C-alpha cells in the first residue's frame, strides 16, 4: 500500500508553497531590486533608532535592578584601574632626587641614585595592571547593554520585562534575521561569481569595464544588505580616483564590503584556496585586481613593482589597501606599514568607525575563525558604521615614507575619533623590538652621562 | 549570562585577600579580569611568558627584573593571590588605617615598599647589594649607552656614599638610610581609580 496524501498534507504543501513565494517576493522587492539600483527605503534606519531607545531602557533597568538588590555592577567603561601620569622619564627622576637629596641642586645631582629604580619599577607595575596596547586586541567594552549575551557583563534575572525582551531579541535575530541574511549572502556571492565570469568572456573595452563596475557594485550592495549594514558616507567628493591608492584603518574583513559597495576598487591580497579562491579568480576576469601567490608576498620588490605598475595606469581602478596589516579593535589606529607609501601615487585616506552598540565588528582572529565571525555578524542586530573620505594627500618634499605614513595615520585617527598609536599592529603576535627598550635606555643615560662628562672635565 | 557576583565568587579566600591587601572588591574584580586576560590558555596561573605579552613591559629596561619579582621564591607560576599581593605594594598609604601593635606590617607601608625595591637590586637574596649586583642593574638600565669604566665608576661612587659599615656592599639598613628623605610613599604608589 502506498502512502495516500491526506487533505491535511495537501493544505500543508500549499501553505508552504505560498509562504515561500511571499518570502521571495518580499526579498526581491524590498532588498534585491533596491540593491541593484542603489536606493534605500529607509526601513533599516527606522529600526536602528528604535533599537537604540530599547538598549538605553535596558541599561537603565539593569542599573536600577542592581541598586535595588545591592549587587555590585561591573563598570567596564571606566578608563582602566589606574590613572597614568603623563610625565616624562626626566621629570620624574628629577623629582624623586629632589625630594631625597638635601644637596645643592646643580650638575652634581644628575648622577645615579639608588632611588632612580623607583621610576622604572612603578612604570613596569602600572603596565602590568593596564597597558595601552594589549587592550586594543580584544573587543571594546560597551556602556549600555545591547541585548546580546556575548557583550553582557552584568545581566542576571533582574526583571521579567527585560528577560522577555531579551528572549524576543533572540527569536528575531536567530529565527528571522539570520536565515534572511544567509540567503542574501549566498545570493550576493553567487551572482558575483557567475556574472563576473560571464563578463570576463567579453573583449577588453569600455563596455566590459562599465558592466563589471555595475556588477561589482550590485553584488556588494546585496552583501551589505546581507549584513544589514547601515552606512553613512561623508564627504563623498573626496572619493578615490583612478591611479590612486585608498588606505583605510582595518577592523574586520567586512571593511572591504563596506567600501566596495560605494565605489569600485582594485583589491590587493593573497590568493586563497577554497571558496575565497573561486571568488578571487572570478573577480579578476572582469577587471584587474592584484592577487599574489603566497610565495610572492615575501618579495617586497615584486609587490612594490606590481602596485606601482597598477597605479601608473590611469585606466585602472584605485587600489584598496589596509596598511595596518591586521585587524585592530576600532578604538585606535596602529602603525602603518610603509610599503604603500613609497610608491609615490596619490593617497586617498578613508576612516571607518563602527558603532559598537549594534554589533562587535572587530575580528579577533585568535578567538574565532572566519565562518564563526560571519555568523556572529549576521546574528547581531546590524552593522552601523560611518565612513569618511578624507582629502587626498601626497608625499611632500623631504618627507620619507614613514613620516608620510604617520601623517596619513594621524589624519585618519583624528577624523574617526580613534587613538593614534605608534605601536605596530604586528605586536598582536610578535614580540616588541629591542629598539624600543634602547630608547628608554638612551633617555636615562643622557641624564647620567652628561653629568659624568662634566665631572671628568672639571 | 554571567552575573557580576559570579566573578567574585570564583576567587577563593576573597575576604582574606581584601583584608591583607586593602584593595576594594571593585579593584579585585578588575585585577581578576586583567589576570584572566594575561593568562593565555586559561591555566589559572601565570608563567613568565604571559608577562612577556605586555608590550610596555618589554620596553622597560628592568622589565625582566620586575617579572622576576613575581616569581621570587624560585616558583614557576603565579596564582591570582600572589599576583594581587605583589601589586598591593603599589597601593598608596592608608592614612586613616589604625596601627594595631600586633598586626603584621601592611603590604603597602613604606618599609614594605623599600624592601620590594631592595629585592630588585639584591637578586641573590643575601640581604646585601654587592658591587656586582649593582653593576648588573646599571648594565640593564644603560646597556650600550655607556662604557664599562663609566658603569664601574658610578657603582663605586654609589657604594661609597651609601656604605656605612665599610663592607663594600649595601645592606637593607644602609639602603633605607640613604633613601630617608625620598618621598617613597608617592613614588612607589599608583593612583588607583574608584
Automatic annotation (TrEMBL), chain A:
<dbReference type="Pfam" id="PF01553">
    <property type="entry name" value="Acyltransferase"/>
</dbReference>
<dbReference type="InterPro" id="IPR045252">
    <property type="entry name" value="LPCAT1-like"/>
</dbReference>
<dbReference type="GO" id="GO:0008654">
    <property type="term" value="P:phospholipid biosynthetic process"/>
</dbReference>
<keyword id="KW-0812">Transmembrane</keyword>
<dbReference type="GO" id="GO:0005783">
    <property type="term" value="C:endoplasmic reticulum"/>
</dbReference>
<comment type="similarity">
    <text>Belongs to the 1-acyl-sn-glycerol-3-phosphate acyltransferase family.</text>
</comment>
<keyword id="KW-0808">Transferase</keyword>
<keyword id="KW-0012">Acyltransferase</keyword>
<keyword id="KW-0594">Phospholipid biosynthesis</keyword>
<keyword id="KW-1133">Transmembrane helix</keyword>
<dbReference type="GO" id="GO:0004366">
    <property type="term" value="F:glycerol-3-phosphate O-acyltransferase activity"/>
</dbReference>
<protein>
    <submittedName>
        <fullName>Glycerol-3-phosphate acyltransferase 4</fullName>
    </submittedName>
</protein>
<feature type="transmembrane region" description="Helical">
    <location>
        <begin position="158"/>
        <end position="176"/>
    </location>
</feature>
<feature type="transmembrane region" description="Helical">
    <location>
        <begin position="20"/>
        <end position="43"/>
    </location>
</feature>
<dbReference type="GO" id="GO:0019432">
    <property type="term" value="P:triglyceride biosynthetic process"/>
</dbReference>
<comment type="pathway">
    <text>Lipid metabolism.</text>
</comment>
<keyword id="KW-1208">Phospholipid metabolism</keyword>
<keyword id="KW-0443">Lipid metabolism</keyword>
<dbReference type="GO" id="GO:0016020">
    <property type="term" value="C:membrane"/>
</dbReference>
<feature type="transmembrane region" description="Helical">
    <location>
        <begin position="182"/>
        <end position="202"/>
    </location>
</feature>
<keyword id="KW-0472">Membrane</keyword>
<feature type="domain" description="Phospholipid/glycerol acyltransferase">
    <location>
        <begin position="244"/>
        <end position="355"/>
    </location>
</feature>
<comment type="pathway">
    <text>Phospholipid metabolism.</text>
</comment>
<keyword id="KW-0444">Lipid biosynthesis</keyword>
<dbReference type="InterPro" id="IPR002123">
    <property type="entry name" value="Plipid/glycerol_acylTrfase"/>
</dbReference>
Amino acid at each position: 500500500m502506498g502512502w495516500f496524501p491526506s487533505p491535511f498534507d495537501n493544505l500543508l504543501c500549499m501553505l508552504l508553497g505560498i509562504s515561500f513565494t511571499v518570502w521571495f517576493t518580499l526579498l526581491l522587492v524590498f532588498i534585491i531590486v533596491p540593491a541593484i539600483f542603489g536606493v534605500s527605503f529607509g526601513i533599516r534606519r527606522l529600526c536602528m533608532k528604535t533599537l537604540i531607545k530599547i538598549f538605553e531602557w535596558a541599561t537603565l533597568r539593569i542599573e536600577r535592578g542592581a541598586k535595588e538588590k545591592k549587587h555590585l555592577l561591573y563598570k567596564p567603561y571606566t578608563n582602566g584601574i589606574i590613572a597614568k601620569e603623563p610625565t616624562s622619564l626626566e621629570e620624574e627622576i628629577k623629582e624623586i632626587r629632589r625630594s631625597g637629596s638635601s644637596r645643592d641642586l646643580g650638575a652634581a645631582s644628575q648622577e645615579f641614585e639608588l632611588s632612580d629604580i623607583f621610576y622604572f619599577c612603578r612604570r613596569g607595575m602600572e603596565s602590568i595592571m593596564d597597558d595601552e596596547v594589549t587592550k586594543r586586541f580584544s573587543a571594546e567594552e560597551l556602556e549600555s547593554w545591547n541585548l546580546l549575551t556575548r557583550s553582557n557583563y552584568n545581566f542576571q534575572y533582574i526583571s521579567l520585562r527585560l528577560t522577555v525582551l531579551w528572549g524576543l531579541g533572540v527569536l528575531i535575530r536567530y529565527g528571522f534575521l539570520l536565515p534572511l541574511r544567509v540567503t542574501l549572502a549566498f545570493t550576493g556571492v553567487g551572482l558575483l561569481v557567475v556574472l563576473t565570469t560571464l563578463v570576463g568572456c567579453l573583449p577588453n573595452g569600455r563596455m566590459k569595464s562599465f558592466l563589471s563596475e555595475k556588477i561589482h557594485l550590485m553584488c556588494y550592495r546585496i552583501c551589505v544588505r546581507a549584513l544589514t549594514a547601515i552606512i553613512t558616507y561623508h564627504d563623498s567628493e573626496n572619493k578615490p580616483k583612478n591611479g590612486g591608492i585608498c588606505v583605510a584603518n582595518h577592523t574586520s574583513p567586512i571593511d572591504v564590503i563596506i567600501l566596495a559597495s560605494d565605489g569600485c576598487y582594485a583589491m590587493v591580497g593573497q590568493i586563497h584556496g577554497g571558496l575565497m579562491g573561486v571568488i578571487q579568480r572570478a573577480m579578476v576576469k572582469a577587471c584587474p585586481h592584484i592577487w599574489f601567490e603566497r610565495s610572492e608576498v615575501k618579495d617586497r620588490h615584486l609587490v612594490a613593482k606590481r602596485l606601482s605598475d597598477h597605479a601608473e595606469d590611469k585606466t585602472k581602478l584605485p587600489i584598496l589597501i589596509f596598511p595596518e596589516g591586521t585587524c585592530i579593535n576600532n578604538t585606535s589606529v596602529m602603525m602603518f606599514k610603509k610599503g604603500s607609501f613609497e610608491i609615490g601615487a596619490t593617497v586617498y585616506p578613508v576612516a571607518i568607525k563602527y558603532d559598537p552598540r549594534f554589533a562587535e565588528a572587530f575580528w579577533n582572529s585568535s578567538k574565532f575563525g572566519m565562518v564563526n565571525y560571519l555568523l556572529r555578524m549576521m546574528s547581531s542586530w546590524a552593522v552601523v558604521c560611518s565612513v569618511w573620505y578624507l582629502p587626498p594627500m601626497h608625499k611632500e618634499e623631504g618627507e620619507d615614507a614613514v613620516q608620510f605614513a604617520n601623517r596619513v595615520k594621524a589624519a585618519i585617527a583624528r577624523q574617526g575619533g580613534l587613538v593614534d598609536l605608534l605601536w605596530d599592529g604586528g605586536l598582536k603576535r610578535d614580540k616588541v623590538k629591542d629598539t624600543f627598550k634602547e630608547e628608554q635606555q638612551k633617555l636615562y643615560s643622557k641624564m647620567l652621562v652628561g653629568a659624568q662628562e662634566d665631572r671628568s672635565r672639571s | 549570562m554571567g552575573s557580576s557576583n559570579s566573578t567574585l565568587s570564583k576567587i577563593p579566600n576573597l575576604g582574606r585577600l581584601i583584608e591583607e591587601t586593602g584593595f576594594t572588591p571593585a579593584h579585585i574584580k578588575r585585577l581578576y579580569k586583567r589576570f584572566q586576560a594575561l593568562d593565555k590558555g586559561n591555566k589559572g596561573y601565570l608563567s613568565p611568558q604571559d608577562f612577556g605579552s605586555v608590550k610596555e613591559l618589554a620596553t622597560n629596561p628592568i622589565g625582566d627584573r620586575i617579572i622576576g619579582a613575581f616569581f621570587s621564591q624560585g616558583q614557576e607560576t603565579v596564582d591570582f593571590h600572589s599576583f594581587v599581593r605583589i601589586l598591593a605594594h603599589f597601593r598608596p598609604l592608608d592614612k586613616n588605617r589604625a596601627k594595631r601593635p600586633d598586626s603584621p606590617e601592611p603590604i603597602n607601608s613604606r618599609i614594605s615598599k623599600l624592601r620590594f625595591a631592595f629585592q630588585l637590586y639584591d637578586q641573590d637574596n643575601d640581604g646585601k647589594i654587592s658591587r656586582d649586583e649593582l653593576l648588573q642593574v646599571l648594565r640593564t638600565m644603560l646597556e650600550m649607552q655607556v662604557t664599562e669604566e663609566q658603569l664601574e665608576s658610578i657603582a663605586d661612587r654609589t657604594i661609597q656614599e651609601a656604605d656605612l659599615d665599610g663592607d663594600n656592599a649595601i645592606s637593607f639598613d644602609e639602603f633605607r638610610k640613604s633613601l630617608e628623605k625620598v618621598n617613597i610613599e608617592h613614588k612607589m604608589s599608583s593612583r588607583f581609580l574608584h
